[in-house]
Design goal:
The chain has 403 residues and is of the alpha/beta class. The protein is built from 14 helices and 19 strands. Strand 1, helix 1 and strand 2 form a beta-alpha-beta unit. The structure holds cytidine-5'-triphosphate.
């Protein structure tokens, strides 16, 4: 998730979650944002000194709706002209009400109503009773109907006041994912397309403690699911490494058998299946119900039996119109082995990467892949971050199969 070149306004209103805006500003810079500009309401300043926001954002922080720039232009106009998105975090009950009724009596609400045609993301945080109040809920519905407004609903959890319930500011990853999707240049590319993505490496039990597994980090599959969600797809991620903060459905599995059951339940209704998971080819026959004890002198044998090839099974029963994409991690003869898998598993494409290189692939943050198709020349996606490879791969698949 990359915010390179983007100018983001972080608007802070007066709630205890105001301090969380500080981490968000830092994270936006960490993920490449060009400028992060802070604005605050006077009440927010009671919770968080504007100097803190200024130090983190590296720009002056304005707190009055009467503020102007060096040329006398009102700050809310400058921001609406120059920024790419407005993120109101946290948004209080009062701010929700004002936004829902078009009030513009502080710098945050004035900026929001000036921000036409660009994303305004509103992340409320408040006590559960305030959130549950019918008037807040009514305001929420009104805000959801504004085309460029998006509400990032609060989570359930223990609140600063000591109560437990809904009203907890959505976590940072959820807010960033929503912002990323709102700014995505291809945000409608996969609109409504149903997609299954698998990720991670399965593990097969030896006994209640030990497993046979592999080094797959799940990052490539996760990057694909994140990109697809940002491109409007109805994505389901089936993974051994569930991430936090995602708003799309995630099924967590452990073994190849779990993976098979989950994939087969989802694949039939899907137009695109991306099998990025590293699935164990073997499992231990009759894993021990009790922890195996060390025997000092004897070696131990494990009987391994083959797991079903899930992708080959999908390929053999592929519904008309479904696009099936495999992944091939190879340590030698990359193109040769990948081509064989493409044909043997009846795939529409296979994404091959060279795991003998330590700078890409397993456990790495980067990848370089060659995409092979049955009836056209292969396409190479040169070394990039996994999210960037995911984006390029999805553009390529769209152009090939969905355009
Ligand atoms: N795959 C699968 N079920 C398995 C093994 C692999 O569905 N039991 C899928 C993977 O998710 C991947 C593709 O098949 O999309 C290729 O996986 P890979 O491990 O590279 O190849 P294998 O077919 O297992 O062959 P080998 O291990 O001999 O290279």
């Amino acid at each position: 998730m990359d915010f390179s070149g983007k100018t983001i306004v972080v608007a802070i209103t007066g709630g205890i979650a105001a301090y969380k805006a500080c981490d968000l500003i830092r994270e936006l810079y960490r993920r490449g944002a060009h400028r992060v500009l802070g604005i605050m309401t006077p009440t927010a300043e009671a919770f968080l000194p504007s100097l803190t926001v200024q130090a983190l954002s590296r720009y002056p922080v304005y707190t009055s709706e009467l503020s102007v720039d060096d040329h006398g232009v009102p700050i809310h106009i400058v921001l609406a002209q120059q920024a790419d998105a407005l993120l109101i975090v946290p948004a209080t009950t009062d701010t929700l009400a004002k936004l829902a009724h078009g009030l513009a009596d502080n710098l945050v609400t004035t900026t929001a109503i000036t921000f036409t045609g660009k994303p305004v993301l509103i992340a409320p945080a408040m006590n559960t009773r305030m959130w549950d109040h019918p008037i807040s809920q009514q305001n929420l519905e009104t805000l959801k109907s504004v085309p460029n407004y998006q509400v990032i609903e609060p989570a359930s959890g223990s609140l600063a006041c000591g109560e437990v319930g809904e009203g907890h500011l959505a976590d940072q990853e959820t807010i960033l994912q929503a912002l990323y999707a709102a700014l995505h240049p291809q945000r409608d590319l996969y609109n409504g397309v149903k997609v299954v993505v698998t990720a991670g490496g399965t593990s097969e039990p030896i006994d209640p403690v030990r497993v046979i597994s592999n080094r797959s980090s799940g990052k490539m599959g996760l990057a694909l699911a994140d990109e697809l969600a940002a491109m409007g797809a109805e994505v389901i991620l089936i993974t051994t490494r569930p991430p936090s903060g995602r708003r799309y459905p995630i099924m967590t599995v452990q073994t190849a058998a779990d993976m098979k059951e989950a994939v087969e339940a989802q694949a039939a209704q899907s137009q695109l299946v991306l099998m990025a998971a590293a699935i164990s080819d073997y499992r231990v026959d009759n894993p021990s119900a009790q922890k195996l004890k060390r025997t000092a002198s004897e070696s131990r044998q494990l009987d391994l039996v083959p797991n079903p090839d899930i992708l080959a099974g999908l390929g053999a029963n592929k519904p008309a119109g479904q696009i099936l994409v495999g992944f091939a991690a190879e340590s030698q003869a990359l193109i040769h082995h990948a081509t064989q898998k493409l044909q043997a598993k009846n795939l529409d494409a296979i994404v091959a990467n060279d795991i003998s290189r330590s700078d890409i692939g397993f456990e790495a943050d980067h990848n370089e892949v060659t995409v092979l198709f049955p009836h056209r020349a292969p396409e190479m996606l040169t070394r990039s971050s996994k999210p960037e490879i995911a984006r390029q791969l999805l553009l390529l698949l769209h152009q090939q199969f969905f355009a």
